[in-house]
Design goal:
The protein has about 550 residues and is of the alpha/beta class. It has 3 domains: about 270 residues, Thiamin diphosphate (ThDP)-binding fold, Pyr/PP domains (Rossmann fold, 3-Layer(aba) Sandwich), CATH 3.40.50; about 210 residues, Aldolase class I (TIM Barrel); about 40 residues, no CATH class.
């Protein structure tokens, strides 16, 4: 996507945190649908929408209509982060006299539509889009609708009107999370293929394209349709950019999402459509949100003569990032590729490029790597002075590319880094000697990672620590326990015949470690009773059985 990826990622996590605090303080609200649209609103607020938080009624602004108004905590959290309201105000949600009611109300700065009765937001948006056209404004109207809301006939009346008037300044985003107030959408009123039972499994419905019919409906009404994974920032970003290029008809982005995304016991669970977390669970939930992890296969572990094919393999395997190990033969003895290759590979996928520059004099070259399409750029502390890194840091921040620092196994945190820590996006702890693929993990890196994370946190670090070198299924859980949250895999991912399965296996080990960590957190807060209560929240599928097993293995029950 090139640029703003880390800004969107960090602010989306912050928004989810504010949603938890707001609904817990209110003792009511709708966290499930607020979480499912978090990345959608993140891409709109932090990249695509034009607005002035200091002048909310600026005539030239873009408009966001939240038709699924019960997800108001999600909107309020992003308004707070964007500067429309103080962040502390989100905890006044649903309080008497507050500007933040259970549904959006225009008394709150930044709210464009009083969302209460479902189904009406799209009609309102059609009027806004027509008005902008009549007034000669180039404003865009973005409307977020729900799939349960799509049971309303008024949605489809507005859909016909928008197509009739060729409203190419209107983009609808359907939060297709498969859950509505009482049950799963496909059991209540299916938008896709006919339901196979009273409570069709949303996981199967979401992941089987042969069942999808929603896009056919919208195309039949004359709309331009784009389908995305609604939690992949790069896909949403690409879709919004694509919608802006469409002429003569409105666009809809069908974003397949998970209701309650980010909090496992809320995911795909209709109970959390409109239910607030209890105060004793809030610290555990906040830890769960903060412990989200990402995997990044390193393509140099594949066929270096056909890196285009390796990128395409990554694209099919669905990692969070693609790790670009750039080596110049000077800082390390190996030569891999340079910015020209990154520019050549960039059009092949929307997955973010995590460019790790193992090169000398990075300040002289970093601009070329940013312009080539890197979303995150990490340079080595060993080849930077404070002034050189300051130049790199300020340039990358200025062009909205994530900035990181890496250290070799024998290198401590440089003292000069302290002033940059609060705005650093990434810190890579090398657990092999850089320069070649396939080395074994250096065991001492576990303690080093823990020490580095403690030091970073003492200085206000808000980014992520990445474990790079020798990470595999045998040690990734320990790396997670150390505090790393991004995991680079060469031979363990790209080097495997089935990369998708290899990534899934590593993610499974991370998930186990994450659930174990949260159980320990529950035990530290409330002993075996809170552990039992935490497990009892996990009613979807086999979650509770898995957690009970982990708790027994960890002697927490």
């Amino acid at each position: 996507m090139h640029s703003r990826y880390d800004i969107i990622r960090r602010n989306t996590l912050k928004a989810r945190t504010l949603i938890v605090k707001a609904t817990a303080a209110a003792g009511s609200g709708h966290p499930g649908g607020s979480f499912s649209m978090a990345e959608i609103l993140g891409c709109l607020f932090y990249k695509h929408m034009r607005y002035d938080a200091a002048n909310p009624c600026w005539e030239g602004r873009d408009r966001l209509v939240l038709s699924k108004g019960h997800a108001a905590p999600g909107l309020f959290s992003h308004l707070a982060i964007s500067g429309f309201i103080p962040e502390s105000e989100v905890e006044t949600l649903r309080s008497l006299g507050s500007r933040l009611q259970g549904h959006p109300d225009m008394k709150c700065p930044g709210v464009e539509f009083c969302g209460g009765s479902l189904g009406t937001g799209l009609s309102y948006s059609v009027g806004m889009a027509l008005s902008a056209r009549m007034d000669g404004l180039d404003s865009r109207i973005y409307t977020v609708i729900g799939d349960g809301e799509s049971d309303e006939g008024q949605i489809w009346e507005a859909t016909m009107a928008a197509a009739k008037f060729k409203l190419d300044n209107l983009t609808v985003i359907l939060d297709r999370n498969y859950v509505q107030q009482d049950s799963y959408t496909e059991g209540v009123m299916p938008l896709d293929a006919a339901a196979t039972g009273p409570n069709p499994n949303p996981v199967a419905a979401r992941n089987d394209p042969t069942l999808w019919r929603t896009s056919d409906k919208w195309r039949a009404f004359g709309w331009h349709v784009i389908e995305v994974d609604g939690h992949r920032i790069e896909q949403i970003d690409s879709a919004i950019r694509g919608a802006k290029q469409v002429s003569g008809r409105p666009s809809i982005i069908i974003a397949r999402t998970v209701k309650g995304k980010g909090v496992r016991h809320m995911e795909d669970n209709p109970q959390w459509h409109g239910k607030a977390p209890s105060p004793e669970m809030v610290p555990i939930i906040l830890d769960e949100l903060k412990s989200q992890a990402a995997v990044a296969p390193s393509i140099i572990a594949g066929d270096m003569t056909r890196l285009d094919l390796e990128v395409k393999r990554c694209d099919g395997a669905g990692p969070d990032y693609i790790h670009m190990d750039v080596m110049d033969g000077i800082f390390v003895p190996t030569v891999t590729f340079g910015y020209e290759k990154i520019r050549e590979l960039r059009p092949l996928t929307d997955i973010p490029f995590d460019s790790h520059l193992m090169i000398s004099q990075p300040a002289r070259h970093v601009k070329k790597y940013a312009e080539a399409g890197s979303d995150i750029i990490t340079v080595h502390a060993e080849v930077c002075s404070v002034s050189e890194f300051g130049e790199i840091h300020d340039y990358l921040k200025g062009v909205d590319v994530g900035v990181g620092v890496a250290v070799n196994p024998q290198t401590p945190i440089p003292p000069w880094l302290k002033e940059f820590v609060p705005t650093l996006d990434q810190f890579i702890v090398m657990s092999v000697v850089p320069g070649r693929s396939g080395q074994k993990y250096i065991y001492e890196s576990h303690q080093k990672t823990r020490t580095i994370i403690q030091s970073l946190n003492e200085h206000g670090f808000g980014g992520v620590v990445e474990a790079d070198g020798g990470v595999n299924t045998l040690n990734v859980a320990d790396c997670f326990d150390d505090g790393a949250r991004v995991f680079v895999g060469g031979s363990s991912m790209v080097g495997q015949p089935d990369m998708k399965q290899a990534i899934d296996d590593i993610r499974g080990r991370i998930s186990y470690a994450r659930q174990r960590m949260l159980l320990h957190r529950a035990h530290s807060l409330g002993g075996s009773k809170l552990v039992h209560d935490w497990i009892a929240l996990h009613v979807v599928g086999e979650q509770s059985d898995t957690l009970n097993k982990i708790a027994r293995e960890s002697s927490l029950l």
